Amino acid sequence: MREQLTSSVIPDTASDLNEMFNQEILSHFLDGVITIDGQGIIHSVNRAVEQIFGYTSVQLLGANVSLLMPQPFRSHHDEYIRQYQHTGQASIIGKGQREVRGQRADGTVFPMDLAVFEFTVGDQIHYCGILRDISARKQIETDLRIASYAFEAPIGMVVTDARTRILKVNHAFTRITGYTEREAIGNPASLLRSDHHPAEFWTDMWDCLYQNHIWEGEVWSRRKNGEMFPKWLTVTAIRDEAGSISHYIATMNDLSEQKASEEAIRQLALYDPLTGLPNRRLLMDRLRQAMSVGARNALYGALLFIDLDHFKTLNDTLGHSCGDQLLKQVADSLSGCIRQSDTVARLGGDEFVIMLVELSSDPISAAERTKLVVNSIIDKFKEPFLLNEEHFHTTPSIGATLFVGHRESIDDLLIQADLAMYKAKSTGRNGYCFFDPEMQSAALKRSTLEMDIRQGIQQEQFVVYYQPQVNVKEQIKAFEALLRWQHPLRGFVSPSEFIPLAEETGLIIPLGLWVIESACRQLVAWSQDEQRREHSIAVNVSAKQIYHSDFVAEVKDIIDRTGADPHLLKMELTESLLLANVDESIIKMKQLRDLGIRFSLDDFGTGYSSLNHLKRLPLDQLKIDQSFVRDVLLDEHDATIARTIIALGESMSLNVIAEGVESSEQKEFLIRCGCRCFQGYLFGYPDLPERY
């Protein structure tokens, strides 16, 4: 026994059996017990000290107790020793238990509770320290503190017992669900369950929890106010030492805002913001699916391309706000004409597309069913639309094409339906047309012609011919400039073939300016000719030209560059100018008139002229259209119209000229009606200026 004690205690002759007994007891203490003398030299340690600090008793006995202290605390210990040597007392004594830091043999620092008291051996005062490693307790306290903070995190948290009775909830749970802590505790977790998920969903969730101890996924729950909401739920099963589930901990994130944002993004990506209809992207996706389904079941579908007639006129006259109202109402009307499985989409502007699916395995039957839908659309448009509490009528032009499987590409189908729609427009509007290969051939020809026009402008293939305008004595008083195209391969191309396309594509703007400049240069050339110097030249100007923002400035620039007399330049405008932007047209006409340019209203009587507008326009001349002159001797209606126009011109102090005069009889009739100016083959064909 004595030998055993010497391993942990410096031998002392005063030791006896009682001391040995005490030491044996101390060796079994869970707390560390250490004694030191007044110089801080360790005299004894028990087994717990060895275990706590990682030193053997051999390493500790005789060593300074500062060995067990972290470096920052050793200076404090030295101060205690100096204080004791000076006063016989140390400040650490009598303070009771306190928390300090110790340092293990491996250098790690740890917290411990320490109590120190003094005792006397002989005439020497010694100190006994009783210490306890509190690392585990501190870690538990830290974990609990962290758990407390975590429990009040922004995500909802719920703790239940093994029967899913709610034991605790946090503030985020209340914010998300609307249930207070008092209302939730004691209730089953199913308090939040909605009817969104089938029973199999919950069975699978609990099976996963039992097997894997954790489950997570998206769940639709119900708030206290009855509102359903999506959340991301994570449930963890907590097991006790016996392996049985004792608790469940659930965390929840409210996905409502995220879902709303995702839906808003989806709406922007796939739906038209004005009408709420699918946009081009979603239509393409659904058309792709429909073609795949059609390939499997061999059922035909149809694509309808719908364009509103004269929609631009509505926008120009009533404003874009009314245009938007009309588009919304049209979207509703079209949606009411189809089945739930079909799709109405808006591509942009006033262009709508309808996709009809699974019509029939027989193309004729499919076409007939398509016609039923088309006719229901046309009938629907017979009802007026209400724009700013005013009734408004519009009509659709509809192009249709059938498809089955992947025989054509999506782009080809859209082109076919588009071509058919334009065919419907060209045949009078307010109707429909089915696609056929001839349309595609015509479209290809049109595309080629457009490229040729562009190239023709660049290569100066166009020329200006002049047709004389005469008085009663058939004396030439003026000429009309007429654009002609001398194509290098196709020869002369008819104006009726390329002028409408130039209008549609906007190429009429550069072409029209070139004609005006050519006419001005011809006026300058004729100014040196005694016989021609007083002759004016009339140039046709389209509505698209005069609406162009820089038109007035560009005309002024041409006059300045060429030096032509603007008083000899006359612009012939068509009645289409009166249909829209009348005020803007009048402003520009007055600006040009201030330069000296005169105006003639061409093709008068063929359009929808308003006398109210007519009296406001700064006109000098009315031109009777050749369609009335042609049969003026055969058709009493044409004769009446001709007489009326001449009388109207006289009453408004406007010169009247009749075009398309081809016989002396026509001329004599017009003279009797009061007409004094004429143009037509009777007096000369359009020709190059040097031939006059």
Question: What's this entry about, in short?
Answer:
This protein folds into four domains: 2-135, PAS domain (Beta-Lactamase, 2-Layer Sandwich); 152-259, PAS domain (Beta-Lactamase, 2-Layer Sandwich), CATH 3.30.450; 275-435, Alpha-Beta Plaits; 449-691, TIM Barrel.
Key descriptive features of the protein:
alpha+beta; Beta-Lactamase; Alpha-Beta Plaits; eight-stranded mixed beta barrel; five-stranded antiparallel sheet; 43% helix; 25% strand; disordered N terminus
Topology:
Elements lengths: L1 H5 L10 H10 L5 E5 L5 E4 L1 H7 L3 H4 L10 H17 L10 E6 L5 E13 L2 E10 L1 H17 L4 E6 L4 E4 L1 H7 L3 H4 L14 H14 L1 E9 L5 E12 L5 E10 L1 H15 L9 H18 L2 E9 L2 H8 L1 H16 L7 E6 L2 E10 L2 H18 L4 E3 L2 E3 L3 E8 L6 H17 L4 E4 L2 H22 L3 E9 L5 E12 L3 E3 L1 H11 L2 H19 L9 E6 L1 H5 L3 H12 L6 E5 L8 H14 L2 E7 L6 H6 L4 E4 L1 H5 L5 H16 L3 E5 L4 H10 L3 E3 L13
Parallel strand pairs: 16-17, 19-21, 21-22, 22-23, 23-24, 24-25, 25-26
Antiparallel strand pairs: 1-2, 1-5, 3-4, 4-5, 6-7, 6-10, 8-9, 9-10, 11-13, 11-16, 12-13, 14-15, 18-19, 18-26, 19-20
The level-1 CATH class of the largest domain: Alpha Beta
Name the CATH architecture of the largest domain.
Alpha-Beta Barrel
CATH topology of the largest domain: TIM Barrel
Taken from the alpha-carbon principal axes, the silhouette is: elongated
Count of domain modules: 4
Helix share, percent? 40-55%
Could you describe the largest sheet, including whether it forms a barrel? Answer: 8 strands, mixed, barrel
What is the averaged pLDDT score? Answer: 86
Supply the helix-strand structural class.
alpha+beta
CATH H-level superfamily title of the largest domain: EAL domain
Evaluate the radius of gyration.
51 Å
What is the rounded distance between the termini? Answer: 148 Å
Q: Give the number of helices.
A: 25
Which ranges are low-confidence, i.e. pLDDT below 50, for 5 or more consecutive residues? 1-11
**Strand order of the biggest β-sheet:** 18-19-21-22-23-24-25-26
> Based on DSSP secondary structure assignment, what is the total number of beta strands?
26
Strand content bin: 25-35%
